[in-house]
Structure formats: structure tokens, C-alpha cells
Amino acid sequence: MQVRVASHSGFCFGVKRAIKIAEKTLASSKGAKNIYSLGSIIHNPQVVGALSKKGLKVIKDINDARTGTVIISSHGAPIEIVTKIKKKKLDLVDATCPFVKNAHNIVKDLKSKGYDVIVIGDKKHPEVKALLSLTGASPTAGVAHPRGGGGKKVAFVSQTTQSKDNYLRGIFDILKEDFSEARIFNTICSDTAQRQALAKKFLKECDVMMVVGGKNSANTRRLYQICRESGVDSHHIETEKEIKKKWFFKKKSCGVVSGASTPDEMVKKITKKIKTLMKGR
Question: Taking CA 184 as the corner, what is the angle to CA 178 and CA 187, rounded to the nearest 5 degrees?
């Protein structure tokens, strides 16, 4: 059986940057003060676990941090949380991905020009909550959606890890209403788009797909969704320990794609495990 690995895999730029920032912050503190991450700094349990062993404390509520440093994850944080960190006089280190920051800047500019900004994305994802906080919508309200039209100027932005298909479906659904003006911004990360394009290419050439990455990773789940909906036998795994030999029975070609927060080393381990299982076939 042939095993094909996507040429574009491993950490994306934003994830590499966030990890580097976390490691530098931990090294500079030398254990002298608490270093917190507000939520997982990236969505990969194995990587977060390794950083935790170095002293990073993952918290869900900013009230759990009393003294020390708080690192904003690669996904960003709602403005009210950032304000709270400053009020508590905690040191703030911002590891928000630059592509996510770009989406933030677009939303701020649109709001200043009087647009109702609609965010298409997963309402529970930290990136979407941060974007919604900039639109003036409640972070718990889900996707910002100004109903009724009636002369409103609206603009669309997407969660950076959305698929273009999902983004377009969301836009078309909302545009059934009447608006005086609508603007659309492509805020989907180029890395995300490239990984999705490679997955679609493999789906035409392979009869089984391995999607590697955290089960809590939005961009990895999106890759898995694309693969699963194609009808090709697909499996979302985090480590090589999850692989089952029966998945490859009567298969001729296996494609391996990974999410943006998946280490290169994990992709290599999974590829090696598949080849070992298939040796002699």
C-alpha cells in the first residue's frame, strides 16, 4: 500500500510563534513567578502537556490567576478579558496569531465605519469569541447576525480556520435578507486553505485518509469534515497509538494530512506506524 504525506504539514507559522513565545516566557521566569495560559495556547494536547511540564499553567478563568504572567493564546481573547488582566495588574504576553490579529483589525475598522459585522465561525471557539467581542455582540451569543436588514450596512468576516464552503454557505444564508450594502472579507488563513486544498487532492487519489491533530483543534476537525463528507474512509487521530490495522484492509493508497497545531514529529510517527503495519503486504 502506498502512503502519501501532504507536503504542507506540521506547525503553521502562528503556532510556531505561539510556542516560541511560551517557551521564551517560561525560560525568562526561571520558575520565579507563575506563568499562565488562558486556555490551551494551541489546540494540541500533547504539545500543551509538554509545555505544562516546563511550568506553564493552563487556566480557564482569568480569576484563577492572582499574580504572575498571563499568555494570551494563539486564538486571541475577548477585549473584556484583556481589560481584566490589566486591571488585575498581571503581566500580559500576547501570543495571538498575526493572521487572527489581522481579522481583529478589519473588524475594528468596519465598526468605526458603521458596519454591522457578521462573524461566520464556531460560536464556542475562543477565536470567534474574541472577534465577537470586537463587534459589540455578546461572546456567548454565537455568530453575530443582525436580523431584519432594513437599510443596514453589513460586513462578513470568517474564523481563520473555516472552510471556504462553510463561509460561503453562511454568507448566502444571511444575504437572503435585505441590506443596503454588504462587504465580504476573506479572513481565512492561507495555511488553512492550503491544507484543505491538499486534502481534497488526496481524496481523489487515496482510498483511506488519516487526519492528524488535536480533537479540540478547529482546523483539524475541518479537515476531517472535508474528508468524511467526500465518502472516502477517513480517521481523525492524535497519536500513532490510535491506528488500527483493519482500517487498511483492501486499501491501495493512504493519504496523511495534519492540522496546523500538529508537530512534524507526530506526522512522522504515524506514517512510520502505517508503513510498519503494511510491511509485507
Answer: 145
Q: How far apart are CA 155 and CA 171, in angstroms?
A: 10
Helix 13-29 and helix 45-53: axis angle, to 10°?
10
The pairing of strands 233-237 and 208-212 is parallel
pLDDT of 142 reads 41
Quote helix, strand, coil % in the chain, to nearest 5: 45, 20, 40
Pairing of strands 233-237, 153-158: unpaired
State the pLDDT at residue 191. Answer: 93
pTM tops 0.70: yes
Q: Which of 127, 177, 205, 229 is catalytic?
A: 127
Cα 56 → chain centroid: 20
Is 127 part of the annotated catalytic residue set?
yes
Residue 246: CB atoms within 10 A of its CB come to 6
What is the separation of C-alpha 113 from the centre of its chain, rounded to a whole number of angstroms? 28
Task: Give the contacts of 67 (CB within 8 A, at least 6 positions apart).
Answer: 33, 34, 90
Domains defined for the chain, CATH in brackets? 2-11+191-278 (3.40.1010.20), 13-95 (3.40.50.11270), 99-184 (3.40.1010.20)
At 47-75, the pLDDT tens digits run: 999 999 999 999 999 999 989 999 999 99
Torsion of CA 138, 192, 200, 237, to 10 degrees: -80
Tell me if residue 163 falls in helix, strand or coil. Answer: coil
Sign of the dihedral defined by the CA atoms of residues 204, 208, 212, 217, in that order: positive
Mean pLDDT of 161-187: 89
